Amino acid sequence: MAVRTRLAIWYAVVTAGILALYLLLSLVLLRAQLLGEVDRRLAACTAEVRSELLQRADFRQAVDEGRIRLSGTPPGAPPIYIQVVRGNQSVAARSPNLIGWRLPLDVDLMAINVQGRAGYKTITTDEGVPVRLYSLPLIDSGRVVGAVQAGYPLLDVEDTLQRTWTTLAMGGVLVLLALSLAGWWLASLALRPVDHITQAALQIADTPDLRQRLPLPRAHDETYRLVSTFNAMLDRLARVIDAQQRLGADVSHELRTPLTTIRGNVALLRRGAADDPQEREIALDAIEAEVNRMSRLVADLLLLAQADAGMQLEKQPVEMDTLLLEVYRQAHAMAAVGSGGVERVAVRLGHEDQALVLGDPDRLRQLLLNLVDNAIKYTPRGGTITLSLYREGGWVRVSVQDTGVGIPPEALPHIFERFYRMPRQGRKGVGLGLAIARWIAEAHGGRLEVESQVGQGSTFTLWLPEAKAPLVS
């Protein structure tokens, strides 16, 4: 069922409920008003009759003997039936319009009269006519000797209520129909922007170009937020697809180069290089290096996949000063790779505090080595890389500072994105190291920051929550 149909139905149901409640309250109030008018007439009539009776000197004897004459209802006035009842609940007198007809003697009203109080009640005669009855006690010398009762048939009241009910019901149906159509129109009007969004989204879905965006409405309402959210989702989707495309291209390239090298060295060995020990060793070293390169790439991809799946790290107390010394020693070896054992850049150890964190030592080592490897790649020969460790206000700060080429300002917002490589810097990796480093930092409740100036170098700063040293008993 369409949303506009559901909205129109709910609108109609709510409107019908309100109209029904209004109709019910109107009838209840009208009935109360009509009965109130009848009660006032009955009270006035009985009060007049009782006043006339009490003015008679032989009032009590006249009641007992039934020597009372009651006048009828004036011509043109609503019919009011009057009767005088003795204390023994027998009728002493009736009004002329009661000839051939009688008002029922109600036990409940008589019981109220015995207590000296008047009362109203709606009763039904033997003929099935609803009558509003009012009974006013006759009191002589503080003693109830009878009652004056007045009755009014409610046929005209019931007829008025019935006609009012019919009129209101017919009007309510017409109003409900009109309001339901108005609700349908309003729902269609309110959902018209959603229809436009749907059509535009379908057009975008039918084209491979994800650069198209929905136009933002002028009013800053729910539709505006919906379009903004949809466009933001398209932006993220475009980035993901672009990253996947770059992943395919980069991984293909990264795998093609080592596979070509391996294939060439295998062919060289088949042509006779295996007979020369020196050439065989060179070929095997090249094959091993390329296999290691592919293994690192596969391991990085697997780690990122596990990170996306919510992999939990096994944390334990880690002495960051000890870990930094291990990375420092390994950094010397990394700086000498491909340079005949001579360090291409100088690796130094700066300030070093003693600090303890709760984390995965292997992942933290991998994070720092990724930062060192990145610094070595982008630092020219003769440059310097400095490793430092500080404790600051409940945090542990580890910095890797280099004197390399620096990072362009336009590249800084993307430096930690997966598969991102700075332009005009050559192909120096698949672009996963810094993305992995940032994930490791965030998995430890920390963060990874970078500051850089082109031509002067970069500083990567790792912030980790400091752990309290365990008590030694």
Structural summary, described in words:
With 473 residues, this protein is of the alpha+beta class. The chain folds into 3 domains: 3-159, PAS domain (Beta-Lactamase, 2-Layer Sandwich), CATH 3.30.450.20; 222-307, Helix Hairpins (Orthogonal Bundle), CATH 1.10.287; 313-465, 2-Layer Sandwich (Heat Shock Protein 90), CATH 3.30.565. Helix content is 51%, strand content 18%. The chain is built from 9 helices and 12 strands. The protein has helices at 3-54, 59-65, 107-114, 155-205, 222-270, 277-308, 320-335, 361-377, 433-443, and strands at 81-86, 91-94, 119-124, 130-140, 143-153, 316-319, 346-352, 356-359, 384-392, 395-402, 447-453, 457-465. It has a 5-stranded antiparallel β-sheet with strand order 2-1-5-4-3. Strands 7-9-10-12-11 form a 5-stranded mixed β-sheet. The protein has a two-stranded antiparallel sheet with strand order 6-8. The longest helix is centred in the N-terminal third of the chain and has 52 residues, at 3-54. The protein starts with a helix and ends in an 8-residue tail after the last strand. The mean pLDDT is 82.
- CATH homologous superfamily name of the largest domain? PAS domain
Biggest sheet, in brief?
5 strands, antiparallel
Shape: elongated
Put simply, the count of helices is 9
Strand content: 15-25%
What's the CATH C level of the largest domain?
Answer: Alpha Beta
Q: In angstroms, what is the radius of gyration?
A: 50 Å
| Spatial order of strands in the largest sheet | 2-1-5-4-3
Question: Could you tell me the mean pLDDT?
Answer: 82
How are helices and strands ordered from N to C? HHEEHEEEHHHEHEEHEEHEE
